[in-house]
Amino acid sequence: MSQKILIVDDAAFMRMMIKDILVKNGFEVVGEAADGVQAVEKYKETMPDLVTMDITMPEMDGITALKEIKKINSQAKIIMCSAMGQQAMVIDAIQAGAKDFIVKPFQADRVIEAISKTLNQ
Question: Which PROSITE patterns match (predicted)?
Answer without folding.
Answer: RESPONSE_REGULATORY
